[in-house]
Design a protein that fits this description.
The structure is a homotetramer. Helix content of chain A is 80%, strand content 0%. Chain A contains four helices and no strands. Chain A is elongated, with a radius of gyration of 14 Å. Chains in contact: A-B, A-C, A-D, B-C, B-D, C-D. Chains A, B, C, D: Pfam families: Csp.
Chain lengths: 109, 109, 109, 109
C-alpha cells in the first residue's frame, strides 16, 4: 500500500461517514419509517466504522488493513440496503459506500 | 472535583452508554416505530457523548468539565424522552441517564 | 448558523483531526522527545474533539454549538503549543488548528 | 457466543480502555520518556480499539467478532510492551490487556 492509497482511503472514509450520518438523520424523518429500520441501523454502523478507520489510518495503526477490511464489508452491506430505497439521501449514501469500499480494497491489496 | 468523583462519573458514563445503545437496538425492533423516532435519535446522541466523556476523563482532558456539562444535559433530554415509553429498555435507559447526569454534575460542582 | 457554515466547519474539523494525528505520530518519532510531551498530549486531545465535533454536526446533535465551542478552545491550545516547535508537522498542525478554530467560531456566531 | 460472554467482553474492553488511557497519561509524565515511545503509542491504539469494540458489541454490530479479533491482537501487543516496564501503571495496563484479550477470544470462540 502506498501513502497515496492510504490518503485516498482516509478521504473516502470521511466522505462516507458524512453520507451515512446524513442518511441516518434523514431516514429518521421519513414518513414510512417501518421500511427504513435496516437502513437506519446500517447507516450508523457504517458511519462508525468509517470514522474509526480514518482515525486508525491517520494514527498509523498496525491493524489498519484489518480495520479497512471490516469497513469495506460494512460499506457493501450499507450500499446494498440503501440501493433498495429511492430517497435521494439513500442513493447518495449508496454511492459513497461503494466508493469507500473500493478505496478500502485498493489500500489493502 | 476529586479523583473519586471522576472515577464514579466515568463508571456512570460507561453504564449509560451501554443502556442507551441497548435501548437504541431494541427501539429499532419495536412494532410501533413511529413513536420511537426521538428515542432512537437521543439514544445514540447520548451514547456518543457518554462514550466521549469517559474517554475525555480517562485521558485527563483539560475540558472534561465542559464535556460533562454537555453530557449531563444530553442525559436529561434522553431520560425525559425515555420516560414517556413503557418499554423496559426505555425505563432502564431513563434510570441510567438520570444517574449519569447526577454523577456528571457532582464531578463538575 | 447556515448549512454552508456547518459543512465548512465539518470539513475543517476533519482536516484538523488528520493534521493532529499526523503530528502525533511524527512527534513520537522525534529525537528530542522530552520537549514534545505537551504537543503529543494536545495533538490527541485536539484530534479527538475534532472527530467528535464532525460526528456531532453530521448527526444533527442538539449540542453541536457547545461541542464546537470546546473544539475551538482545544484547537487554540494545540495551535499555541505547535507554534513553539519548528518541525514541519507542528507548523502544519498549528495552521490546521487555527483554521478549524475559526470555522468553529463562524458556525457558532 | 452467549449474551453472558458478550456482556463480560464489553466490561473487559471498557476496563482495558481505562487502564490504557491511564497508562498513556502517566507515561507522558515519566522522566525517561525515550523508552516509553512504543508504550504511549500502543496505549492509545489499544484504548481506541477497546472503546470501539465495546460500542460495536453494545450496538449489535454484525462484525463484532472480527472487531474483537483485532482488539485481542492489539491487547496482546500492548500487554507485551507494558510488561517490559516496571512502572505500576504499565503493570496494571498489561494485566488489563491480557484479561481483555482473553475475554475477546472467549466471545469469538
Amino acid at each position: 500500500m502506498t501513502n497515496e492509497q492510504i490518503q485516498s482511503c482516509i478521504e473516502e472514509c470521511m466522505s462516507c461517514m458524512l453520507a451515512c450520518n446524513n442518511c441516518y438523520v434523514a431516514c429518521l424523518k421519513e414518513e414510512d419509517l417501518n421500511m427504513m429500520r435496516e437502513c437506519i441501523r446500517l447507516d450508523r454502523e457504517c458511519a462508525d466504522i468509517c470514522g474509526f478507520a480514518a482515525q486508525a489510518m491517520s494514527t498509523g495503526s498496525q491493524y489498519m488493513k484489518e480495520i479497512c477490511q471490516i469497513c469495506a464489508e460494512t460499506c457493501d452491506l450499507c450500499a446494498t440496503e440503501c440501493e433498495k430505497h429511492h430517497h435521494d439521501h439513500c442513493q447518495r449514501c449508496a454511492a459513497a459506500c461503494s466508493a469507500c469500499a473500493k478505496a478500502c480494497r485498493a489500500m489493502i491489496a
